[in-house]
Amino acid sequence: MHDKEFDLDLDIDIQEPKLYKVILLNDDYSTMEFVIDILVKIFHKTNDEAMQIMLNVHNKGKGVCGIYTYEVAQTKVAQVSQEARNKGYPLKAIIEE
User: Fold this and answer.
1) Which of 60, 63, 67, 89 could form a disulfide with 53, with the two C-beta atoms 3.0–4.6 Å apart?
2) Cα 61 to Cα 67: distance, rounded to the nearest angstrom
3) Domains and their CATH numbers in the chain
4) Element of type H or E holding 94
5) Sign of the C-alpha dihedral computed for residues 38, 39, 43 and 46 taken in this order
6) Beta-sheet pairing, 19-25 with 62-69
7) Using an 8 Å Cβ cutoff, are 95 and 73 in contact?
8) Which residues contact 42 (CB under 8 A, 6 or more apart)?
């Protein structure tokens, strides 16, 4: 075997991906149970976490469901939209930097 030396450039600038909040918005039609179900199924929250987020959505008009990379956040928003449409609710999720 040949011994080879490699000069590694260890001064590489690695940046973490930006993270985005997925936020549920309050509406007058989606039931509290449906919102909790979404938080458990799509955002993998415990029942207690889901209840707290749902109350924030209900009382403050919006609630943060999670913080993700952009692609994951987009997927979560699409999943919420699809599930809400399937059940006939106007529940909406948005992405915020």
Assistant:
1) 63
2) 18
3) 19-96 (3.30.1390.10)
4) strand 92-96
5) negative
6) antiparallel
7) yes
8) 65, 76, 79, 80, 83
CB burial class (10 A; 0-12, 13-18, 19+) of residue 4?
A: exposed
Closest CA to 52 of 70, 40, 68, 69: 40
d(CA 12, CA 26): 44
The mean pLDDT of 33-47, rounded to a whole number, is 98
Residue with tokens 């943060």: 64
89-97 average pLDDT score: 97
Three-state SS string across 23-58, please?
Answer: EEECCCCCCHHHHHHHHHHCCCCCHHHHHHHHHHHH
pTM: 0.83
